[in-house]
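Q: Got a minute? One more chain.
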Amino acid sequence: MKTIAKMMNNCTNITTKMSVQRPMTALLLTLFSAWALVACGESSASDSGGKGASMSTDTSAGDFGNASYDDGEYPGAAKDTSAPDEVDPYVEVPEEEFAFHSAAVGERYVFIVDTFRDQVIYVDSESLKIRAVKVGDSPVLVQAFPGTDTVIVLNEGSQTASLLRVADGEAEVMHFEVLPGVNTVVTSPYGPYAVLYYDHHGGDTSLGALNAVSILRATPGQESLIELGTGFKPSSVAFREDGERLFVVSQAGLTVVALPEDIDTPSFHPPLPLVSDPLLNQYEREVHVTRDGRFAVTRLIGQAQISVLDLESADVRMFDTISETGASIFASDLDLIPGSGRFVMTFRDAGRVRLVDIEAFMAGADDDGAGGGAAAEDEPDAAGDGYESEAASEEIIEEAVEETSSEPVEETVEETVEASAPDLIPLPAGVTELLTDGVTLGLCRVADDGNTAVFFSTALGARSIGLLDLSETDPALRFVPLHKEVRIVEIDPSSRFGVLYHQASGLAPNPGDDFETLIEKSNGYSVLDIASSYVQPFITKNEPKDLVFLPDYDRMLVLLPDPAELDHRVEVVDFVRFLATNHPLYARPLSIQAFKGEARAVILEEHVSGRLTLVDAVNDQTESVTGFHLNAEQN
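A: Always. Here it is, folded:
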């Protein structure tokens, strides 16, 4: 889960985004071994004691372990037009390889891409019946509209997208041409819209469309796909919470698209600048759009600056981030606080965090420094954020020294220091600052309800987190010690629990190791109860990978893949009892997704004939389906 890239869960773009993962070469099996492995409809139930193996899957921005082939050729197929040689009946012919690397969970059905046969497999999660439907050439990605059995299939070979609907087991397919090189699909959580575009971060060796996106409307009876010109190199998209605005982030700025008005005819939508100086577009940045679509907040990575774009007035303000002494400080992270009109900045090296009320912050800038909130471009001699520039600070110091020199010699040392020290620069309007008291905190996750922020650091030796109750008028940081360093933090959708991923030191345990050393060398994760600040560690044999939350059932499922390919597992965590059970998996898991509002999740596994496992987290049972081709009924 990347998690990616933050997925911008705290802003308007609470979208589902998937990028194409290029398959790698799969394992060649003989016809006999394939026959021996084929099984269908098998089911098993693990006891609550968690006997057996546990599993994990890595779906982090990585390969799924198979490679694609040009022109639809299978591995080993030669483009030889000469007459074939006589086949030796005693030599095994390598079996046909399949690619099942992308899956999507709908309301009832599970959809799996079958790249080499140009089709999508869809499995009824209730009856386990398998069906197949033809789509475009070389499908590589499938993405569902949340909570529906409608999906988009991206076909790399034919450069098309297929809109697939399933009702009562019957599939309906429509095809649309898309822009060159499209490798990313984002579906709206608020309406029947999806955006397809070429993301230059995808690692492709060839370039795609760099100035436009495709917008697909999936409304029954009004299906359409249109191409819209945007800024150079679109990199992410977001939707306003009412579903009526689409925001496209590009190197040139932010493009605003009205839905559905602006997709009736092809057009170009000039981007609004996210920074006041076009030269700043060269820097990497982190962009967030508030859920109501009012503001866009940008952190310039590696620069002591942020910007705020008012999307109603198109006014953009730049603010320098500096300390009370005028020194530049660099924000290591920036996150929106949902439903509050605020954001939080983390300054790891400066040892502080800041809460910012956007409207008060902007109003302070409009007042030309009232409350310390003047914008940098409004005061050419100011450093921004309402703070004095370094040059101005030096003038203050010089004036203070001159004034001190005229004082009587009898003045005490304390009085002299007080007279010579420059005034500390006040915080801008709308800004609250909290110090981290020497605890290293560089990143932040904000709960979906906007009431809690969890601060952490991935730096070596950082073994504490900070908790902040954002609902309090005068909030204070609470620090919680940990047994191990943290590499990932996630908060469940109910906003009551957090998950902290740890990583082993990479050293093998020795017989003489003490307890703390064994913990240090072990894989694992911790579960955080936000209300009590209690942290429960869980030690695992394999490194934790992808996870899904089941918020209606206070459960979480974690994939634990085995690098040695011997003992893959999935672990089910009960947040009520703070206990974990696990289930063995037959093959390496590729991804895990949950059915909305249910206690079930689906795991796609790497298998030559296709395999998935359904996990019932409440009843502690699993069911598996294998052999998609042999058992699929063609639609």
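A: Residues 1-15, 21-97, 368-419 have pLDDT under 50 and may be disordered.
Q: Perfect, thanks.
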